Amino acid sequence: MVKVKEMPYSEKYTIMLDNVKLGDTLIPSFVQKHLGNQAVVELQGIWREGVKPIPGDASFEEKYEIAYGNWIWRGKSTFSFIRKQMGEDGIEQLKRAQVEALKRKNAGPALFLLRLVRALSPGSAFKMTANQMTYRLQWITPFSVSELTRHRVVYNIPRCKILDFPDSEDLCVIGCQSIYPMWVAEQFRVRMTFERQGNSCTCTLIPLG
Length: 209
Known about the structure:
Elements: H1 9-35, H2 37-50, H3 60-105, H4 109-120, H5 122-136, E1 144-148, E2 153-157, H6 169-188, E3 190-197, E4 200-207
Helix pairs in contact: 1-2, 1-3, 2-3, 3-6, 4-5
């Protein structure tokens, strides 16, 4: 196994809040555009039904766990709502909107530098991306890394945290297995694939072209 720097709960919590903020910006705007203001009010009401308050004096681990449950609730509620109102075509449109939002969020000088490195050494650029993702993805679920080279990364997920929650299949299939691969392929030129068995899976990254 490859030794990986462990992300502290304080940082997991911060990234979780950052992702919630991204959803707060994207989802109501998407719903308003396609379904109108009343639909936004309805969806936000559904969100409030399942969101739990986060005590200010809780530990970062406790804050992260509560925020994680809130994120799961909002995510699965959103996919269910969009499917009911817009069908599978609406899900596809939402996927594209989320990919574009992730690309905007992760654009900047670091991405420009990565592109320069890729032009000179594709293997080095992939390794830079892989190292960053190996650290940053720890907020989603626990995993180990069995391989990390200039040409391939393998993450082993013994029990996906997302799938510990009821009715979370959409978050796995649409979020992890569709939106994230589209995003990293388009922005970082990396192919992300999953081999799932029940609540566990293996995620593999390889460079594109």
